[in-house]
Amino acid sequence: MQEPEEKKIALELLETEQAYVSRLHLLDQVFYTELMKEAKTAKTVPEEVVKMIFSNISSIYQFHAEFFLPELRKRMEDWNRNPRIGDVIQKLAPFLKMYGEYVKNFDKAVELITTWSEKSPPFQELIADIQKRKVCANLTLQHHMLEPVQRIPRYELLLKDYVRKLPPQSPDRGDAEKALEMIFMVAKHSNAAIAEMERLQNLWVVYQKLGLEDDIVDPSNELIKEGPIQKISTRNNSTSEKYLFLFNNMLLYCVPKVIQVGAEFQVHLRMDVEGMKVRELKDIEFPHTFLVSGKQRTLELQARSGEEMNAWIK
Question: pTM of whole model > 0.70?
Answer without folding.
Answer: no
